[in-house]
Amino acid sequence: MLRPQDTTTRERKPLTGLWRFALDGAGEGRSAEWFKGPLANAREMAVPASFNDIAADAAVRDYFGDVWYQTAVRVPRGWDGQRIVLHFESATHRATAWVNDAEVVSHEGGYTPFEAEVTEHVQAGEQARITVVVNNTLSFQTIPPGVIEDTRDGKRQRYFHDFFNYAGLHRPMWLYTTAHAHLTDVTVVTGLDGANGTIEYRTRAKDPGGAEVRVILRDAGGVEVASGTGASGTLAVENVHKWAPGDGYLYDLEAQLVDDGGMVLDSYHQSVGVRTVAVDGARFLINGEPFYFTGFGKHEDLPVIGKGHNDAFLVHDFELLKWIGANSFRTSHYPYAEAVLDYADRQGIVVIDETAAVGLNMGLAGFLSGVQDYTTFSAETINDETRDVHAQAIRELVARDRNHPSVVLWAIANEPESETEAAERYFKPLFDLTRQLDPTRPVGFVNFMFHPYGKCRVSQFGDVLMLNRYYGWYTQTGELQAAELAWEEELKGWASEGKPIIITEYGADTYPGLHAVLPQPWSEEYQVAYLDMNHRVFDRIDAVVGEHVWNFADFATTSGIVRVGGNKKGVFTRDRQPKAAAWALRRRWRRND
Ligand code: GCB
Predict the structure, then answer these.
(1) Ligand 1 within 6 A of 89 CB?
(2) Distance linking the first and last C-alpha atoms of the chain
(3) pLDDT surpasses 90 at 367
(4) Where does 276-431 show beta strands of DSSP type E?
(5) Is 567 a pocket residue for ligand 1 (Cβ < 6 Å)?
(6) What span, in angstroms and rounded, lies between the C-alpha atoms of 372 and 161?
(7) 370: pLDDT confidence band, cut at 50, 70 and 90?
(8) Which helix (H) or strand (E) holds 14?
(9) Helix/strand/coil for 30
(10) Of 123-127, 147-151, 527-531, the least confident
(11) Is 505 tagged catalytic?
């Protein structure tokens, strides 16, 4: 699937704005065919946004089940004779859409795009009614998983991850056109040979007839530097300007479908950053040079709009990354909006790209939200069907993000159970699948502190070890010396495996404005002392090739006695004000500036 764009042959129209919106608590909308007319009893709802915090209403915030969105759009007059497509950048966690009375598409999974051709259901110049039913329920067969439990107060959605289950239409939606003969896919793989670069490209097309593919590569100044013909091929660039951390240099590859008469039927632009990624022993190499990750696990999480994409915060967050000296982040715990990856490409920020497979660990469940006891992997809980859904989530992530130079590593799950044979059986095929889909990037998963060195049975499959550790917070709380000893001991064990280690999470909840002369947990001083302790350990172990503090900013979670107004491990508050730790990190990460 190609992302909608405006080119000489394609046009798009955003479907963002205020939509009609209704909860469907009784679950009757589908059988009552609510899509067949104006939604009754609807309120207005912003798109893109999570619906949960927009209404000041607990019934909306904690709702699970079907919600309905509807808008009317006038199809541009000039679109007659074109192929017209309805495109969703995401719908969390699943959706079905109708155009006028016709059902056009359904999709499972809350963070990847989907689309449907709607040419035969709309008419240029006329209005079309678009209705979408979005469902946010989580079960043991969804990624991420969850469960509905009976309580004295009725049914409740529980889940096993530590962030609020924001839902809705979080990202932009589009109507767009292509010609009937059109490109359906463009893939690029880049290589380096000394000062020269190579770009292998592959294209696919639908109904091309006799048309042929032509590609033109232009540099950032728009000057043509290479060209080729054929559905696939390799372009060479002499004295290539590499994409590198801190230098988001991009070429533009224009792929065209050209008919016998030389007419361009379709034109699509793919940005290309020429770089290589490799693991060599315990080193992580970008362009053949050792790379050390500094940065954060983040969230898509904002006041009012929840996981709604917002360009102002996108730019602001990257400014803060630069201010603090971060060169990278992880898309914890789901694929982020495509605009985020595009921006990371342009800014030269490195990304660890993660699926939404978070919370496949019943050991954690009770701790976070007091849910009942379950076995993680069993016929009734996480099973083969879940793995199929997980595999599909990996396929869609790789298909969506494989052309981004910023993405250097796939994280196929966060903190799953990994000590058991069942876990080993569950994960082995998913690692194989990821490597088959993308042989050019290392693959890993993020290991949980209670499946430590010597016990984990899944890390054997990873090219890189990614560890989340909270010595001095969840264990040895307030006892940083004891934490330092225990942490170094475990890390030395991992280092003996000879793989690069990225500390994908370490952090301490910190209430902004709480101070203590003798650093006490929750104070700003403790967060600084805790990070210093971690850094002393990392600096003593060569195999550590990265440090991602948990978290960039405070974020919303479910209620629980371990959370005070959400998770407070942010180095910035939820509204992006620095805690003392932000200044301390800036001193460490920018010490060579
Ligand atoms: C973790 C999880 C993350 C949590 C964090 C915490 O290990 O990966 O989702 O928010 O710990 O703060 O407990």
Answers:
(1) no
(2) 42
(3) no
(4) 277-280, 283-286, 289-290, 293-297, 328-330, 350-354, 407-414
(5) yes
(6) 14
(7) low
(8) strand 12-14
(9) coil
(10) 147-151
(11) yes
